[in-house]
Write the structure tokens for this entry.
Amino acid sequence: MADIQDVTEFYSDTMIIEIPWRGDYFTWTNGQIGVDRVISRIDRALGNGEWMMKFRHLTVEIGDPFISDHSHLSLRFQKRNNNIKIPFRFLNVWADHEAYQSIVTKGWQGKQQYCKLVTIWNRLKAMKIDFKNLNNKNFRDSAMKIEQGRRDIIECQQEMKKGYTDQLRIMEKEARHQLGKWSLIEEKILQQKSRAQWINIGDGNNKYFFAVMKERA
């Protein structure tokens, strides 16, 4: 158990995760038969957040061992099917928006049906539409807004080097606020999708969350 804990801590400390794989689960055998036969999964391919974001369509194929006692691991670069319909997912950040309560109240006041389950289903379906609209209007393209915030800060700072004004300082302060706001929103969304609840929000782990999310996909 100590060895397992050491490996787990290593993964967490270095933010390295296992690359998605397909094939046989076990990758090693001692070559014996009967009760002496031992099989184990001791071969893994690992990557950090930077690497997995660079190669977004990446999997490891576990092949046959042939004359070895280990199965070989092959990296496969392939495109995913973008035509797959993404299921609806409630994002926790929506609950922080000022419109959240009104959407829930409005949805829960929907028409009463002959069956309670049908009533609940229809009400949730109505809220789903409103939450999608809320997301598209207020939470979409967070990565682009983060990048825009960075550009605005740099632009303000460069202008202040040419000639300081209070207006430029106010603009820089607002850009910093927007950058912090959208960085936190993106981090919360990625943490929820990756289910990496052991990492603290606010530590700038967006790339790691994204990599974990890819591993689970």
About this structure: Residues 92-139 form one domain.
